[in-house]
Amino acid sequence: MSDPSQNSARERAQKSVHDYAVEYQDLHLEELEPCLGFSARLNLLWDLAGAALPQTDGRVLSLLAINHDWKESDVRDWLQRDVVPPPVELRNMVRFLVHQLPDQQDVRRWEAFLIYGAPIVSSPVDQMMYREDEMRRNIATMIFAQITDKYQIPPSAYDADRVYQRCLALMHKFNIYELKDFQPGHLEPFRNYLFPSD
Questions:
Q1: Residue 119: is the preceding peptide bond cis (ω within 30°)?
Q2: 82, 39 Cβ separation under 8 angstroms
Q3: What contacts 80, CB < 8 A, 6 or more positions away?
Q4: Is the whole model's pTM more than 0.85, yes or no?
Q5: d(Cα 105, Cα 55) in Å, to the nearest integer?
Q6: Of 90, 122, 154, which closes a domain?
Q7: Domain check: are 106 and 49 in the same one?
């Protein structure tokens, strides 16, 4: 039985320059296809950066105020029609937006993600969200420990996983995203919600 890789190597060796020229013309594109989802991903990055108004509240005008050289029709194409800006413009925009994000972010990875999307380029958003979620989980653990310690609630008195999930939910309701957001006045409502007296 012959090896398929040897067959394809033999076929390539038998092609003439003319064959390659014909094949090139057959595969030739006059223009790039739109990068489906580009605008949604770009708007997401603007949302994460927080550097412009939301889409529904005049984002196009915000962007025009940030860079006076941009044209309204171009900005609308970028934000609404999956049109990718020229390479230098895209790089400068992504550098600016990534600079607004927390932590160290890779500009080229964001740029590739905007153009190609997942799964071709894994989402940098997932990593950011994981880090934020991890931070919230650490805070929930500290709140949980503080309440059980202060009110001397023994581990046998509750289902830890259930109480932990309730703690995360209540943190969201109270807009607690950092440990400093948890104030002494929160102790009693948290205790009552996490450990309701049955």
A1: yes
A2: yes
A3: 39
A4: no
A5: 23
A6: 122
A7: yes
